[in-house]
Amino acid sequence: MLKFNPAFDTLYEALLARDPSYDGRFFVGVSSTGIFCRLTCPARKPKRENCTFYETVAQCFDAGFRPCKRCKPTTPEASADPAVKPLVEALEKRPAYRWGEPDLIELGFDPSTVRRAFKRHFGMTFLEMARQRRLQEGFSTLAGGGKVIEAQITAGFGSPSAFREAFAKILGQAPGAFSKDALLAADWVSSPLGPLVAVADKSQLHLLEFLDRKALPAEFRKLQSYAKGQIGFGRTAVTDQIQEELNRFFEGHSGVFETRLALHGSAFTRDVWRELLKIPAGETRSYSELASAIGRPDAVRAVARANGANQLALVVPCHRVLGSDGSLTGYGGGLWRKQRLIELEQSYRQSPGA
């Protein structure tokens, strides 16, 4: 079970407000209709005496409720949105295409509706996602030994300066600044929550971050300093291993990561990260519990800062730390990702291999 269960009044207020911060983490069963819904369901809100709140879909079924046909609580929220699935599939078929609003209109979509839907589900618009996808194609070309001009063309950028600028915005430096004989190799790995940059040597993973994380350029510069500028493009066996483990994690097969990690930070920061590694998938902790666990109960704010400084997303599970009242709190990868991860990890709570 999650360690922090909000009070009934809190959840009922969230239901009335259609508060998305609880979506996927709690469901409401309505005794007067016999159905269960997401807390964001657009249907008319039930009376409080008819409501019972549950943490999982399985609990709702066990209690005899059937799923609502409007909010589709048994379906991942993004997949249930009619504007999302077909466009994501179209993007994967043409990853290097320069998508624009006229393309959306031609496919029968209203650009403003698409913009709102993608922003709600993914924290970015469809056009931002498409641009990021093009950069991934260019990144892959560089990682495979291709030249910068080849990567620019593959990514669909009309000018070298535009490609360099877009690339530098993500990693903090232009592609030509990367070392050819590198100690560390950078490449991207995929996930259902968006692509991540992985930096690894032959034995350890040094960085794993979502491409759109604002702190990524600063983290990359710190790593460049550690490696004395020796970061290049490419994959190692470690990169392949973390991709395989991420695939298993998101497919619901395993909540355990075995990739060896290089923890870059102060002794205090590393202590916090090691404690995070002890939190099993499907469980959560508060910042104060984390502070007590490392023997520093008065250092809650410092623990929160160390948690936020984590540069090994998903593997060092900083997303498993909630506010003292069970609410979602800051997450560098975006609260929408934190919510999805906590929802996904519900399936690992009683899994012996998690």
TrEMBL record:
Keyword set includes DNA damage: yes
CDD domains with a match to the protein in the record: ATase (cd06445)
Protein's recorded name: Trifunctional transcriptional activator/DNA repair protein Ada/methylated-DNA--[protein]-cysteine S-methyltransferase
Domain of life, source organism: Bacteria
Key words of the record: Activator, DNA damage, DNA repair, Methyltransferase, Transferase
Ranges in a coiled coil: none
Pfam families per UniProt: Ada_Zn_binding, DNA_binding_1, HTH_18
Record field: catalytic activity: a 4-O-methyl-thymidine in DNA + L-cysteinyl-[protein] = a thymidine in DNA + S-methyl-L-cysteinyl-[protein]; a 6-O-methyl-2'-deoxyguanosine in DNA + L-cysteinyl-[protein] = S-methyl-L-cysteinyl-[protein] + a 2'-deoxyguanosine in DNA
Organism: Roseibium porphyridii
Every HTH araC/xylS-type domain range: 106-181
